[in-house]
């Protein structure tokens, strides 16, 4: 299934890159369709890589159960909840342009070696997003692809940076909290356990419903995106092409 999602992303990129090569078709329409497919499927690929990052570091840190559960295969069908871990984030991205995380793998924290390993397991997923975003920026900078392909890749890179910023927040239920949780007092850990089911939901509603909150996240993400070498103009055109119905 992972290879199928990757194939769709590559196919969308080819369509965006060579949109003017298709006879009897509108190049702009073909390019936007390609960008939509590439970004949507590319986000699916990054979700798989994000969860693989958690599982891989957990495996190296002592949790052998992740292997037997299939978390090291990149197959999203092995996730604890494929609907909320893959399908739901893809729908939210398509409708609202917000790259939501999708907690997909169960880590046996009791089998991890120490607190430092627990923190590294939590941070591995967001840093996979950051690494993928930087790699996409490097591709755009070095290979200088066609305008539409560069726009789609840049927007996908921006989504990775947004996901990194969002996940790194120290809020129960997000990876940022998981990184600091082992070092907190038992009282704080109990509070986090109680808040974990609803704290991310409140945050996501705030991003959608409160313009100031959504704007703050976008501004921080854009600043980090440009700081590490992203092209804001390409990303803006990629955003417009992805949400072509607007």
Automatic annotation (TrEMBL):
It comes from the Bacteria. It holds the Pfam family Peptidase_M50. It is a multi-pass membrane protein. It is found in: Cell membrane. Its cofactor is Zn(2+). Belongs to the peptidase M50B family. This is Zn-dependent protease.
């Amino acid at each position: 299934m992972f290879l199928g999602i990757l194939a769709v992303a590559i196919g969308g990129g080819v369509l965006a890159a060579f949109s003017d090569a298709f006879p009897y078709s509108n190049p702009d329409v073909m390019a936007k369709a390609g960008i939509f497919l590439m970004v949507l499927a590319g986000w699916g690929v990054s979700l798989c890589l994000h969860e693989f990052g958690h599982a891989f570091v957990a495996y190296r840190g002592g949790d052998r159960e992740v292997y037997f559960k299939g978390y090291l295969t990149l197959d999203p069908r092995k996730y604890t909840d494929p609907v909320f871990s893959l399908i739901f984030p893809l729908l939210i991205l398509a409708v609202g342009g917000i790259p939501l995380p999708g907690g997909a793998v169960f880590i046996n924290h009791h089998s991890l070696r120490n607190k430092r390993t627990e923190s590294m397991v939590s941070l591995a997923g967001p840093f996979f997003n950051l690494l993928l975003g930087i790699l996409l920026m490097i591709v755009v900078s070095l290979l200088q692809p066609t305008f539409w392909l560069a726009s789609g890749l840049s927007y996908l890179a921006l989504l990775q940076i947004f996901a990194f910023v969002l996940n790194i927040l120290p809020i129960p239920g997000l990876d940022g909290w998981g990184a600091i949780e082992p070092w907190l007092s038992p009282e704080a850990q109990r509070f986090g356990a109680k808040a974990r089911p609803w704290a991310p939901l409140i945050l996501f509603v705030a991003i959608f419903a409160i313009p100031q909150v959504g704007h703050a996240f976008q501004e921080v993400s854009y600043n980090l995106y440009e700081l590490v070498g992203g092209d804001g103009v390409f990303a803006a055109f990629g955003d417009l092409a992805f949400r072509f119905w607007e």
